[in-house]
Amino acid sequence: MPDGTLIITRSGRSRWRDSLIVAVMAAAAGVAILVTLGIVMSLVFETILFLKKIPISNFLFGLEWSPQTAIRSDQVGAEGSFGVLPLINGTLLISAIAMAVATPLGLTSAIYLSEYASKRARDWVKPALEILAGIPTVVYGFFAALTVAPFIRMTGGQFGFEVASESALAAGLVMGIMIVPLISSLSDDVINAVPQSLRDASLGMGATQSETIRRVVMPAALPGIAGSLLLATSRAIGETMIVLMAAGLAAKLSLNPLDAVTTITVQIVALLTGDQEFDSAKTLSAFALGLLLFILTLIMNVIALRIVKKYREQYD
Amino acid sequence: MINFTQQAGFGLRRRKRAEARFQWAGRGAILISLAFLVVMFVSIIRDGAGVVWQSQIAVTVELSADEVDPENIGDASFNSILKEALREAFPEVDSRKEKKRLYGLVSSEAAFEIERQIRDNPALLGGMQTLWVTASDDADLYISGQVDTELPEKQRRVSDAEIAMLDQLLADGMAREAFNRGFFTSGDSREPEIAGILSSLAGSALTLLVCFVLSFPLGIGAAIYLEEFAPKNRMSDLIEVNINNLAAVPSIVFGLLGLSIFLGTMGLPRSTPLVGGMVLALMTLPTIIIASRAALRSVPPSFKEAALALGATPVQAVFHHVLPVAMPGMLTGAIVGMAQALGETAPLLMIGMVAFIVDVPTSILEPATALPVQIFLWADAPERAFTEKTAAAIIVLLTFLILMNLIAILLRRKLETRF
Question: For the ABC transmembrane type-1 domain, which residue ranges apply (chain A) (predicted)?
Fold first, then answer.
């Protein structure tokens, strides 16, 4: 009988210890939620302070971006202008160039790798492409600013185009290459999830392999591919270092890829590095830009992740 | 009827050509991406390889007791000793402008280098000594053959007079290229010929240390909970969606979080590896959690069931039997996460790790910078000689990343061969 009591107390203690361990691990999982809350709260809090100084309509619909700290508080334009549209223009222009490069490259690579390549070739080419995703963005930025931008300027000059030394094209091109592996690996998953029976049916009716891919596999994989493209776009919008080093600071409303434009991320860095005073509209505007960026990418990510996930399950 | 078959024949040929084109488009796309990779690597290696060698110039300095008091080395004016020695070597130089050019052949740190050599070896004192000092960045460009002498004088950084002096030094064996130890053993500097990566490497190491200590236990704890213990309810779903979304949040947003909460609300010291590591830990957390969950899932359920059947509690079953098997996979995830953190720049800019750091940081509470930030700073510097340093720093960064990924791949192989 004393033995029995001993066992009960031991298991009682270890049960208590077990639930403590589980609770600690649950708390670790909760940190993920805390991080999101922290991001939202810090951004929202500072943005509210910002919007007390600058009306929200000026921020969202203003056509001029020139944040400056006034030397005297009564001078004309002391507050600077905080119209975000030129920044959105620049961000979307560069992202569009990047996607125009990455979509055809990424999709055709994914199709080739999943439908044509031998297993040996796949085993070599896939990791090689993934290297592109593993290179730090600051390296791409250096390459874009030092090699690609002068090259584009020189080539453009030969054809009589006026190319800014920090052109949207250089930043977009390099960024496009950077997101190729993102698109190709996500699309690869989606294409592989299309059931073989669909392909067999099409091939059995006498279609060639490329016809099968274009008319049967692609339509079946389309929503998932759209999801992966959306995810890649969100990545392009949030990218900082390449645009910081290769795209410049000029806030311009322009759709010309040879112009210098600036992006939301570049302005956040420009506003927050160097001397800063807290509570000035200039510093606070960086957080408003951050919130805008966060909301924009979050919406895209949520939609994209939902599509990709739903789509994977559909054929499982 | 014949017409019909012929048509079908033409159609077939057209379709086969379309098929071939389609395949070539796929190969072409892969080739373009890989070609870009190769061109980028080659151009960076070409730009950065020169950093291995550094030009030095020999000066014959007078170190008699009159000039340098052996009891009190710090009082001596090494700058004037150096200038004196340079004037002796080129007695024909007399105008102010030419003298300035002459002094400009050696690095502005050269006087300190002489002082350091004497402190390291006081036996040098007491007479004439020939010492090697670092050449200036422009002189280095010429000595390493990077100056195109065909260009008109106005278009190059090195003038004809300087070239004449350097040629004389080279002919006398008073200028040489030596292995550039300084690049790996000294900190940042305003002078490109002196600047090294040690301070930023140390900063990166400290930052990664903080990042690992925070994110690895948190990530593993979260992964074990979500995979083995979490009840299937809305809360778990919410956490799961949340983690997937966090993985896709732009890195700069994490920097804003760090700036506002770690620096603003919590008042932690700016520019330190502590804050940098905390921000990067939050960023790499999703990567580690996702990889660790995959590792846990790959352990056959029979392991856990066998332990449970023998009377282990669920916690014991997981910690004694599942975790050890999943560990290599989790470590792989952690290393991949650390590699990501090592290359991350933008969030560190937000929390002020862009400071100009000369000294090598030794604690996580000292201001520091990180290797990718150093690359960003050097890439921005106007001196042409910094381009070489930038490319070389990139090569060092990529070498570390390749090593980390190799370790991760080897670990993964080991894990895969077990089942």
Answer: 88-304
> B343: which chain A residues are within 8 Å (Cβ-Cβ)?
134-139
Structure tokens at A113: 């790798």
CA dist., res. B226 & res. B237, Å (int) = 10
Residue of B218, B225, B285, B397 to mutate for A, most A C-beta atoms under 10 A: B225
pLDDT of residue A8: 44
Q: DSSP letter at B127?
A: S
Q: With contact defined as beta carbons under 8 Å apart, do B346 and B252 qualify?
A: yes
Please give the domain boundaries of chain B with CATH numbers for all domains.
51-180 (no CATH), 198-418 (1.10.3720.10)
The secondary structure of A214-253 as a DSSP string is IIIIHHHHHHHHHHHHHHHHHHHHH--HHHHHHT-S----
Task: With beta carbons under 8 A apart, name residues in chain A contacting B30.
Answer: 109, 112-113, 125, 129
* ipTM of predicted assembly, 2 dp: 0.89
C-beta separation of A74 from A149 below 8 A: no
Ordered DSSP codes for A89-152 = HHHHHHHHHHHHHHHHHHHHHHHIIIIIS-HHHHHHHHHHHHHHHHS-HHHHHHHIIIIIHHHH
CA-to-CA distance for A72 and A54, rounded, in angstroms? 18
Q: pLDDT tens, B272-327?
A: 999 999 999 999 999 999 999 999 998 999 999 999 999 888 999 999 999 998 98
Between chains, do B242 and A113 touch, taking CB under 8 Å as contact? no
Instruction: Give B 279-308 residues with CB within 8 A of chain A.
Output: 282, 285-286, 289
- Reported pTM: 0.88
Q: Scan residues 101-160 of A and list those with Cβ closer than 8 Å to B.
A: 104-109, 111-113, 116, 125, 128-129, 131-132, 134-143, 145-147
Using CB atoms, pick whichever of B225, B252, B376 lies closest to residue A138.
B376
Cα dihedral across residues B326, B329, B331, B337: positive or negative: negative
**Do A238 and A104 meet the contact criterion of CB atoms below 8 Å apart?**
no
**Range from A99-113, A123-137, B129-143 carrying the lowest mean pLDDT:** B129-143
Contact A234 B248 (CB under 8 A): yes
- For the stretch A73-124, pLDDT in tens is 555 555 678 889 999 999 999 999 999 999 999 999 999 999 999 999 998 9
| Residue A9: other Cβ atoms inside 10 A | 10
Contact A26 B15 (CB under 8 A): no
A305 contacts on B by Cβ (under 8 Å): 241, 244-245, 248
Tell if the CB–CB gap between B405 and A35 is shorter than 8 Å. Answer: no
